[in-house]
Amino acid sequence: MKNTKNMAACLLACALTTMVFAQKDTILNLHFSITDQLITIEAEVHGIQGVFVLDTGVPGIFLNERYFKESSDVIPTDQVVGINGRARQVGLLVTDIKLEGIRQGVDALVVDLTHIEKSKNIQLLGLIGQCMFKRHELLFDLPNYSTQLIPTDKKGHRLSTLEEPPQFEIPFKTKGHLPILRVEINNLELLFALDTGAECNVIAPKYRDQIKVTPKWSKLASLTSGWRSRQTVAYQVEKMKVFDQNCHPMLSVFSSLESINNSLCGPQLDGIIGMEWLLQKKVSLNFRKKRCYLWKEKLGTKEIEKTQIKPKKKEVN
Fold first, then answer.
1. What pLDDT does 314 receive?
2. pLDDT tier at 305 (50, 70, 90 boundaries)?
3. What is the sign, positive or negative, of the torsion defined by CA atoms of 95, 308, 55, 279?
4. What is the pLDDT of residue 303?
């Protein structure tokens, strides 16, 4: 699922007002599910509780229009951009969001996300983007069905001790708000943005003839922006490395990155990497320190369940 990105939208969506923790130095375990290659979590916004996609590819909070369009609190604002083109006008809602032990004030963008609901067969309240995790280290251990929020100080130092320290620490640069990872495919050295909302990897079409793919491994895949979905052919790409660490074969599509490269500041991207990589590695991202941490690979022991949870109104006693 790809990305709604524009500098004006970024400024609006990342505005924070308050943050409250049960305990400042407590590691929070996020309760989540994998729904058709997307990380889904429960949260509450504007009195409505429901399912959100954890999508670091978007800078802030995006709410599904059909649950909020009748609200008089929604203010019209400018358009934003997705990987598949430009969206129509969206709204702005000043509200707060409650996730596990966190309550945070946000300026959320209200957009049409019904195409994601239809393609994933879920009722989706919105997308929770990177601004929700700026003050944490975000740890993914999806092979073992674990996702954690590790609180950090203003310099990015962990306020809690990890049970198992990482084996690798790699600094990263950014494309806009997106971490950039160094990826190697068939001896090609490339720059990929990491995006938890990417169901499969995206590679710039200019590398199509230089990357060997086997036709028998190809299949149709859905490439989704914040506004629309389209079917395209995904290929099983082998001999991939991320920060010199070998990866299992990953599904990838060849699609233009012109929109994201033109709309965000930073180095030109050659691709996007997401769930195909996260589902096979233990990885954490520290946005304050701009560090990516990796653990040596272990065999996952837990089966990741798929759930569908309908948004519901907050009960009033």
1. 47
2. very low
3. positive
4. 43
Residue with tokens 């001896």: 187
> In DSSP terms, which residues pair with 125 in a beta bridge?
none
**Residue pair 125/108 in contact by the 8 Å Cβ criterion:** no
Domain architecture of the chain: domains with CATH: 7-153+306-311 (2.40.70.10), 168-294 (2.40.70.10)
Distance CA 14, CA 281 (A): 28
Confidence of residue 222 (pLDDT cuts 50, 70, 90): low
Q: Compute the distance between CA of residue 215 and CA of residue 236 in angstroms, rounded to an integer.
A: 9
pLDDT at 84 over 60: no
Segment among 139-148, 169-178, 221-230, 291-300 with least mean pLDDT = 221-230
Do 127 and 2 form a contact (C-beta atoms < 8 A)? Answer: no
**Residue 177 phi, psi (nearest 5):** -95, 0
User: Which pLDDT does position 219 carry in this prediction?
Assistant: 59
Give the model confidence (pLDDT) of 88-106 as tens digits: 567 889 999 999 878 889 9
Alpha carbons within 13 angstroms on the beta-carbon side of residue 230 total 12
Percent of the chain that is helix, strand, coil (3-state, to 5) = 15, 45, 45
1 pLDDT band (50/70/90 cuts)?
Answer: low
Q: What one-letter code names the amino acid at 175?
A: K
Asked whether the beta carbons of 97 and 44 are under 8 A apart, the reply is: yes
Would you call 68 exposed, middle or buried from its count of C-beta atoms within 10 A (0-12, 13-18, 19+)? buried
What's the rounded Cα separation, in Å, for the pair 54 and 256? 24
Cβ–Cβ contacts within 10 Å for residue 287, how many?
21
- Give CA torsion, residues 115, 143, 24, 13, to 10 deg: -20
- Phi then psi for residue 131, to 5 deg, are -60, -25
Task: Give the chain's mean pLDDT.
Answer: 82
As given in the structure block, the two tokens for residue 133 are 């995790």
What spatial distance separates the first Cα and last Cα of the chain, rounded to whole Å? 38
